[in-house]
Design a protein that fits this description.
Radius of gyration: 39 Å
Number of helices: 5
Strand content: 15-25%
Number of strands: 10
Shape: elongated
Helix content: 10-25%
Order of helices and strands: EHEEEEEEEEEHHHH
Largest sheet: 6 strands, antiparallel
Length: 347
């Protein structure tokens, strides 16, 4: 496409955009280009001041640039100073990137030492490609040493850690520059519904606080290759000339489960051995695993202990034992017999 001149994306004619407001302008679908310019037309000599410009390209089901916007968010604890500066979790997904918490009232803030976390529910599963976090204009160290995890379920242990967490990114620096939008790309093929940002806070007054979380991703089907699991089944029903019982289940003659070449599942390694095999072979293997060996039962062990041991060494040990018992008995009885005989002779 030959571009002979600039193409107008949007002409915003209102006088002002509110403090801390994120304004979105939609361009015509036919516009293509490399450079984006924002121009201010005014008679007065006023400056053009911006804090962040986000350009969305090819926004479709595979490239969704703010999955977390206005979604349900929670956190481990919530700070409240009683002056309308409450650090509720939802304030970090309200679309307001204002880094000034007292003024913009748009930052989340926990209120306790220990394992601190913030979490958003995306409602459905997405392929997560990137998570961006807007830092505050003060105390920037509160966003240091954070982990971004993705989970398919909201199940966690007694330490409030996800059971099935997949690490998107670990930011190990001690802090983030003030008012910076920290961009954290995820590793490949991460699919999930819940996004959690967490850190361990070892000292008092070092909490988890930030002003906006932007989650980018798309539909799981956009991952290169097939992400689903397919099964092919051949079913044959038994039919005869006589009337058949309609309650009988069909006879499954062949079933094979196939694992795709590309799969984002974290459990792939543990279940891969069950794919590309028939159900019949899996059932046979299960029967063998459930079968109890006769030699492992208590009754067999008792019988084994009670049977005769025919080995020569065993018989010899038995004979020696008998001789020793007889010798001990004679050593006790013979002296008494001799004494009794001498007594009777003296009379």
């Amino acid at each position: 496409m030959d571009l002979t001149g600039p193409q107008l994306c949007y002409n915003y004619t209102s006088n002002v955009i509110g403090p801390g407001e994120l304004k979105t302008f939609k361009c015509p679908a036919s516009i293509e280009g490399r450079f984006v310019r924002i121009t201010k037309h005014t008679v007065a000599s006023t400056a053009l001041r911006l804090c962040e410009v986000i350009v969305e390209v090819n926004a479709d089901t595979c490239t969704i640039l703010d999955l977390a916007l206005n979604k349900s968010a929670t956190q481990s604890t919530t700070y409240d100073d009683g002056k309308d500066h409450a650090g509720d979790a939802w304030r970090s997904v309200d679309g307001n990137l204002d880094p000034n918490m007292p003024v913009g009232q748009s930052c989340s803030h926990t209120d306790q030492v220990g394992h601190q976390w913030w979490q958003v529910d995306l409602v459905r599963y997405y392929h997560i490609t990137q998570v961006s976090i807007q830092n505050r204009d003060v105390v920037p160290h509160r966003l240091g040493n954070v982990s971004v995890e993705v989970s398919e379920t909201n199940n966690f242990d007694i330490h409030s850690e996800f059971y099935d967490a997949k690490l998107c990114h670990y930011y190990e620096a001690s802090d983030v520059p003030a008012s910076t939008l920290l961009i954290l790309p995820c590793s490949d093929n991460i699919v999930g519904r819940y996004i959690r940002i967490s850190k361990f806070v070892p000292i008092l007054y070092d909490v988890l606080s930030f002003c906006e979380v932007i989650v980018e991703g798309g539909d799981p089907s956009c991952i290169q290759g097939t992400t689903g699991i397919t099964a092919t089944t051949t079913v044959t029903e038994n039919t005869t000339d006589e009337q058949t019982d309609t309650t009988d289940s069909p006879e499954i003659t062949s079933t094979t489960i196939s694992l795709p070449s590309t799969c984002p599942c974290s459990c792939r390694g543990s279940i891969e051995k069950y794919y590309n095999r028939s159900i019949e072979s899996l059932l046979d293997e299960l029967r063998e695993e459930l079968m109890v060996s006769k030699k492992e039962t208590a009754s067999y062990t008792r019988t084994l202990v009670s049977v005769d041991d025919g080995r020569t060494s065993s018989r010899n040990i038995g004979y020696v034992g008998i001789v020793l018992l007889v010798a001990v008995g004679l050593s006790i009885v013979v002296p008494d017999v001799v004494s009794l005989a001498m007594y009777m002779k003296g009379k």
